[in-house]
Amino acid sequence: MRWSHLHIPTLHADPAQAEAIHHRLLVRAGFIRQLMAGHYMLLPLGLLVRRKIIGVMREEMNRIGCEFLMPAMHPKELWERTGRWETMGEELFRLQDRRKADLALGMTHEEVFTSHALELNSYRQLPQIWYQFQTKFRDEPRPRSGLIRCREFTMKDSYSFDIDIEGLDVSFERHRQAYERIFTRLGIPSFTVNASSGTMGGNASLEFMCPSDAGEDVVVICRGCGYAANLEMASSRLPTVIDPESGDAPHMFATPGVRSIDDLARDYEAPASQQIKTLAYMLDGQMTLVLLRGDHNLAEQKLRDLTGAVDIRSAAGDEIRTALGAGPGSLGAVGVRGFPIFVDEALRDRRNMFTGANRDGFHLGGVDVARDLRPSVWADLREVATGEECPQCGRSLKLIRAIEVGHIFKLGYTYSEKFGVRVSGPRDELVHPIMGCYGIGVERAMAAIVECHHDEAGLVWPLEIAPFSVVVTNLNPMDTRTTETSESIYDHLVATGVEALLDDRPLRAGAKFKDADLIGIPFVVTVGPRGLAQGEVELKSRASGETRALSIGEVPSALKRLMNMAVIQ
Ligand SMILES: [Zn+2]
Q1: Which end of the chain is more exposed for a tag (fewer CB within 10 A), N or C?
Q2: Rounded Cα–Cα distance for residues 468 and 488 (Å)
Q3: Alpha-carbon span 506 to 272, nearest angstrom
Q4: Are residues 264 and 365 in the same domain?
Q5: In a domain? residue 31
Q6: How far apart are CA 531 and CA 508, in angstroms?
Q7: Contact by Cβ (8 Å): 15, 33
Q8: How far is the centre of ligand 1, averaged over its atoms, from the C-alpha of 557 (Å)?
Q9: CB neighbours (10 Å) of residue 267?
Q10: What is the pLDDT of residue 305?
Q11: Could you tell me if 80 and 179 lie in one domain?
């Protein structure tokens, strides 16, 4: 293609309000523009990259399944069938047609694919792996700058149907391997973590994480044994604490003005690690107390997974006062009955602890957890912190930020049961197929690639994803010989199947070099009058910055060699 036919609106300066590197660079290099928060235009180069990414995903997915295209707009009835018309809440975009029929804009497609699975009728047709590339809509409360969290985005989603759990294990493993190949080919370094399955239901899920400061996820990793887990799910080992004896019973003391763990620690010689933190939660409308060590934080997802509660929130001030008779600064669970009390494992066998007395301005000391509390459930509820010990090998844990680039779930029977999908089994009995679902965000993958492949001068696309493999830069379009030579090199490359871009714009050389670096095409062939006087052109590799002078005839073979080396096998 000719640069003059393309629209590549590069910018001299970084766009305002673009924080993440990929956002800044993709806007500057003329790949994307924001329409409104969470919605992006893909300009011609952005679209070419998207097509490349989809191409890689399609090739790998076609090795294990087959492609569909399902509507983005769905009838309400499908979502009511699974209860998700309700539970998806405000994240689901809803609209009405002229007949006032309720519709949803698909945020995911379990309902639609499962409704089609009613056409399956025998185990002989299984396994099936069905996938698509489709626009998803999610009414994110806080669409972030850039392509990582959008309200409208493309997803490769797939769904597997198997006759039994062993079959599901195979489909899941096939996806895991396909995803590994996809991320390798896209140049996205990734590792997997066990993840909470959230509202999808089911019992096994893996997230593919790409380490990046732009990521929204925090992952706990151990460099010793390779342990890796989402912060929501991670656990750690704590050193055993030996407390002094508590005495016969807790004693109450006045703590006027104390509102927090820190206040009590500072004014009453009660270190946070010797306090019991009492959190009041409403779990699906049920007041519940959650107890943690004063210096620990609750991992809310652990509470969610433990209880299966859908609607989880902190109790409001008046709800707390009605239930416990005090404000949030003086809460405790000693002597409390009538509510579920969930206690974090780190409090087991602790003695001589401090906690609120359920009386404003008073606390208790000398609390013995085993003697004075009536826990309903002991569980690991706390969030891991940097430096704590690995649960597997005891080395120090690290917290890093990461982009979740893929997610694979074992869904189980939920959807096939709700839709009444049944096939005849080997002994003629009717069975529900067991399902899995799997997703990769296409534009998010683009963001991750850029986060991992750039430098000060701009984007550095891996060859397989680059919008073009090579840009042929005509340094002086006014010069006939330069123009003829660059055109003939370009024509030759195109004729031999190389994706080439010809920079034929009437601009000065400096601007052309800068733009070529910014848009990140892997190879640049520069044709100028000075070089041609020596019978030479220059070939530059964008990633390494290496340049070499070549005779015109050497260009195709030298380029082919470099391209072969650059392909990720
Ligand atoms: Zn470890």
Answers
A1: C
A2: 18
A3: 68
A4: yes
A5: no
A6: 16
A7: no
A8: 49
A9: 12
A10: 85
A11: yes
Asked if residue 181 belongs to a domain, the reply is yes
pLDDT at 152: 97
Contact residues for 426 (Cβ-Cβ < 8 A; gap 6+): 123
- Does residue 438 sit in the same domain as residue 487? no
In a domain, 235, yes or no: no
Q: H/E element holding 104?
A: strand 102-105
**Residue 511, SS3 per DSSP:** helix
What's the CA-to-centroid distance between 166 and ligand 1, angstroms?
30
Taking CA atoms, 566 is separated from 188, 462, 466, in Å, by 15, 8, 12
Task: State whether 56 and 163 are in the same domain.
Answer: yes
State in Å: Cα 184 to ligand 1 middle.
25
Each residue of 86-130: pLDDT tens digit? 999 999 999 999 999 999 999 999 999 999 999 999 999 999 999
- Name the residue range of residue 366's domain: 251-379
Assign residue 524 the CATH number of its domain.
3.40.50.800
Model confidence at 569, pLDDT cuts 50, 70, 90, reads very low
The alpha carbon of 222 and the centre of ligand 1 are apart by a number of angstroms equal to 5
Residue pair 502/2 in contact (Cβ under 8 Å)? The answer is yes
Non-local CB neighbours of 86 within 8 Å, separated by 6+ positions:
none
- Rg of the chain (C-alpha set): 30
CA distance 353 to 251: 11
| Count, residues in the chain | 569
Across the chain, mean pLDDT equals: 94
Whether 516 contacts 461, CB under 8 Å: no
In order of 277, 378, 565, the CA distances from 463 in angstroms are 54, 53, 10
Separation of 218 CA from ligand 1 center, angstroms?
17
Which pair of structure tokens corresponds to residue 426? Answer: 């080997």
Q: CA-CA distance, 500 to 517, in Å (whole number)?
A: 15
Rounded Cα–Cα distance for residues 163 and 205 (Å): 19
Q: How far is the CA of 437 from the centre of ligand 1 (A)?
A: 30
Q: Which two tokens stand for residue 230?
A: 């989402």
Query: 172: buried, middle or exposed (CB in 10 Å: 19+, 13-18, 0-12)?
Result: buried
Ligand 1 centroid distance, CA of 236 (Å):
10
Residues 416 and 506 in one domain: no
CATH at residue 178: 3.30.930.10
Element (H, E) at 342: strand 341-344
Ligand 1 centroid, distance to 396 Cα (angstroms): 8
Cα-to-centroid distance, 197 and ligand 1 (Å): 23
Q: The pTM is what?
A: 0.86
Q: Nearest Cα to 443, choosing from 46, 85, 66, 106?
A: 46
Do 329 and 420 reside in the same domain of the chain?
Answer: no
- Same structural domain for residues 156 and 272? no
Domain holding 349: CATH number? Answer: 3.90.960.10
Residue 382 Cα, ligand 1 centroid: separation in angstroms? Answer: 18
Domain tally, the chain: 3
Kindly list the protein residues that place their beta carbon closer than 5 angstroms to ligand 1, a single-atom ion: 222, 224-225, 227, 390, 392-393
Question: Could you tell me the distance, in angstroms and rounded to a whole number, from the CA of residue 179 to the centre of ligand 1?
Answer: 25
pLDDT at 200: 45
CA of 221 to the centre of ligand 1 (A): 8
Give domain status of residue 56, yes or no. yes
